[in-house]
Amino acid sequence: MKVMLVNGSPHRHGCTDRALQEVARTLEEDGVEAEIFWIGAKPVGGCIACGGCDRKGACVFDDAVNEFRAKAAEADGFVFGAPVHYAHAGASLVGFMDRLFYSNGRAGQPDVFRHKPAAAVASARRAGTTAALDDIQKFFTISQMPIVSSRYWNNVHGNTPGEVEQDAEGLWTMRQLGRNMAWLLRSIEAGRAAGLEPPAQEPGARTNFIR
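User: That's the sequence. What structure does it adopt?
Assistant: Structure tokens below.
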């Protein structure tokens, strides 16, 4: 079993990374492989609704989004982490997820997220973490991904990684998140072994409210 953790901060080894490292270490201790993927320091833009992914099966902007999707196909679970900027999730992670999830499963390509557990993590100096978590988790709910919770909201506080070290409750929350993720992955694995298949998918319909 493997979990991919996404560091959506422009700072590779900042506060968000410190939180994700705590989750990753706990997963590894629980026998689950963990890999942290950094989206980079350059600004990441969102989807421009060009429709190119319907033809290409990937985002037309060939950057970290497509690189991560290739890795995501082999992952069993995900954790997406972001710093708080202006009381919401950092724009680069939101732009990254915007294109990642919109282009997922297009042009006959497999859906790499459906029914895979996911969790959101936010780091902040002071406030805005719950709004940031909501930003991230909406991508999961539209993609039929079970959301993994912890014993508190999945956030840490601090202006530097050293200050995050002092957030004992935040790091405790990260460790419990790792344990809960490992438990859910094993539960899904046990279900598959017992012959439990994912739920059937209806063809579906798109309804517009303005005629």
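The chain has seven helices and six strands.
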